[in-house]
Write a structure and sequence with these properties.
By secondary structure, the chain is an alpha+beta fold. It is 19% helix and 25% strand. It has 10 helices and 25 strands. A 7-stranded antiparallel beta sheet has the order 12-13-14-18-17-16-15, with helices on one face. A 7-stranded antiparallel beta sheet has the order 19-20-21-25-24-23-22, with helices on one face. Helix 2 (63-76) packs parallel to helix 3.
Length: 599
């Protein structure tokens, strides 16, 4: 999206350094950080806000002064509203985040701005199309949960296109090192705005700002910031990218455990940190099903299922699926049945719409286990140890590496249900026991008859209602050397469509994916059909294009993005640049047939 119009935007920057209660440590770097942000936001070479439209509140004495300034800005901003707070924060008796002003104490309701009051002010008075909220204080992660939580319809229309960044998680403390000019999070934010982000678009989307700040803090073993988005809020672009055109920075691949301390409250453990989920490519370049990591392209399993029609039900009666799109894969999972192995929680927003995951954190520590239930068109031949359990044939595959697979073949259906327990590495000894426990639950549901229908209603801008096989026309496919136009192989529910040459290696896959919002680490940022996209060339010459469609908060309050993913392999072109051009052209055609990004 274009850079936010500075003439129609407003910002309120709040910094609190001086606290009168001797029990509350002073934060001498908070106000200087707010003032430096103002100088950047008013710089014509970055954003160019007018000075009068970018208000700094240094050590405001009363909550009313803060709320009044926010209301004035909210009523004046038509394009973008930015609110920033740096200071101390604590959790109140009702769980609300309390922003502490100079007269605040460690306890009591005085001289604090309850976040719920600030949020309500924004809901009641905001006019801007875009809203950015940045909070640098202890426990600030509560803002992501509270601001992006369930809302009624009237509220949803008010907060559309909102992006929230916080300095740390809800149960963590932010850091303000004495020997630095600014608080740690604010300092990383300032540095990112000053330097720009190599490889990211210009103007600079907030999601790329967040990823760069997070990577900077990861490398320093500091608390990790959190973010949340609604209505494609992660695409909001406030400033120009001073590093536009520069080569992308090196990717951070791991981080040491994070510990923090501070004057306000002790750190409360919230369990194992969830690792960044890697984007899945699901059989995009071949028949059958497999999971692979884009960076390593290493398949953990391949069942080589034969191509199948997408109707789902075989001739006869007794189909368990009926309307494939309404069959709910999450109905075949039960986190409670896996809790003897550790903490288990459901994640319905990762991978395709034909998939549901349960994440298991082993009780004794160690690698998180991802338990996947996935629907696939076609039936696996009964190779391996097969048993019949009611109306379901269960094929148990031998454990392979860090994955254990069970294939469920319901009678009267041309469908395979895959149950997969996997880890990134160092699989626990109980991996197949976890897969078997998940299989027992799935078999019990299938033997009851119909797979329960989905209870979640998808918005109009979701890819759920789109047909992947309707996105590429004959003209677009004919431009790819060796590809046979019209030879589509639909997968389960038509959420994926594969095309292959009859005489050569050329293959094209189109699929709808869900996972972490893509960023510059997923490929070279570009624009396709006016949308942000990412083009990734793999080592073997294959090209993958990812086009985000919509963003929302998932089951674990983490940002999730629905994306169109198009892969092109074996095109037989002499140069990789030509393969990229062909893949990008196909993605442009496919994108033109997607629903509008706004519901």
């Amino acid at each position: 999206m274009p850079r936010a119009d500075p003439s129609a935007s407003r910002a309120v920057l709040i910094g609190v350094s001086a606290y009168t209660d001797p029990a509350v440590e002073r934060l001498p770097t908070a106000v200087p950080g707010a003032r430096r942000l103002r100088s950047l936001l008013t710089d014509p070479a970055l954003w160019g806000l007018a000075g009068k439209d970018c208000v700094v509140l240094s050590n405001p004495d009363t909550p009313n002064r803060v709320l009044r300034a926010v209301r004035v800005a909210a009523e004046a901003a038509a394009d973008t509203l930015l609110i920033y707070f740096a200071g101390h924060g604590r959790i109140g008796p009702g769980g609300d985040l309390l922003l502490m002003l100079p007269g605040a104490a460690l306890e009591g309701p005085y001289a604090v701005v309850p976040y719920s009051d600030l949020r309500q002010m924004l809901l009641n008075h905001r006019r801007a199309d875009n809203q950015v909220l940045i909070v640098d204080c202890c426990h600030s992660g509560a803002v992501v949960t509270d601001h992006m939580g369930p809302l009624d319809l009237a509220q949803r229309t008010v907060i559309e296109r909102t992006y929230v960044i916080t300095a740390c998680g809800k149960q963590q403390l932010s850091r303000a090192p004495r020997d630095e000019k600014y608080p740690a999070f604010t300092g990383a934010l300032i540095d990112t705005l000053e330097r720009g982000v190599p490889g990211a678009p210009d103007p600079l989307p907030m999601r790329d700002v967040f990823v760069t700040v997070r990577n900077s803090l990861t490398g320093r073993n500091l608390p990790l910031p959190q973010d949340g988005s609604s209505g494609l809020g992660d695409e909001i672009a406030l400033v120009r990218n001073r590093a536009a055109g520069a080569a992308p920075a090196a990717r951070v691949t791991s981080a040491a455990p994070v510990t923090s301390g501070g004057p306000v409250a002790p750190v409360v453990s919230v369990g194992p940190a969830r690792p960044k989920r890697r984007r899945r490519r699901r059989a995009l370049l071949g028949t059958g099903w497999r999971w692979s990591v884009v960076a390593a392209v290493a398949a953990v399993v391949s069942a080589d299922l034969p191509p199948a029609a997408h109707s789902g039900a075989a001739p006869g009666t007794g189909s368990a699926f009926g309307d494939l799109r309404q069959a709910d894969p999450c109905a075949l999972t039960a986190p409670a049945a896996l809790r003897r192995f550790g903490d288990a929680r459901q994640d319905s927003g990762y991978g395709g719409f034909d998939r549901c995951d349960v994440l298991v954190d082993p009780a004794g520590g160690g690698q998180q286990v991802d338990v996947v239930v996935d629907f696939d068109a076609g039936r696996e031949e009964e190779t391996g140890r097969a048993t019949t359990e009611g109306r379901v044939t269960v094929v148990r595959k031998a454990e392979e590496g860090s994955a254990c697979v069970r294939l469920l073949l319901p009678a009267h259906d041309d469908v395979t249900v895959a149950v997969l327990a996997k880890t990134d590495d160092r699989a626990p000894a109980s991996l197949c026991a976890i897969a078997d426990a998940a299989t027992t639950t799935a078999v019990q549901v299938l033997n009851r008859g119909k797979v329960p229908a989905r209870t979640t209603a998808f918005p109009r801008n979701s890819l759920f209602g789109s047909d992947a096989c309707a996105l590429l026309d004959g003209k677009a496919l004919a431009a790819v050397p060796g590809l046979v136009a019209g030879g589509a192989t639909p997968q389960f529910g038509n959420w994926q469509c594969d095309y292959a040459s009859d005489s050569g290696p050329t293959r094209v896959g189109v699929a709808f994916d869900r996972g972490d919002p893509p960023d510059a680490r997923d490929g070279t940022p570009t624009l396709i059909g006016g949308r942000h996209a990412f083009v990734l060339s793999e080592g073997d010459g294959d090209v993958m294009v990812t086009v985000p469609q919509r963003s929302y908060l998932g089951d674990q309050h983490q940002p999730v993005s629905e994306s169109l993913v198009l892969a092109l392999a074996g095109a037989g072109t002499a140069h990789r640049a030509e393969t990229r051009r062909l893949a990008t052209a196909l993605a442009a055609t496919a994108t033109s047939h997607l629903p509008p990004t706004r519901a």
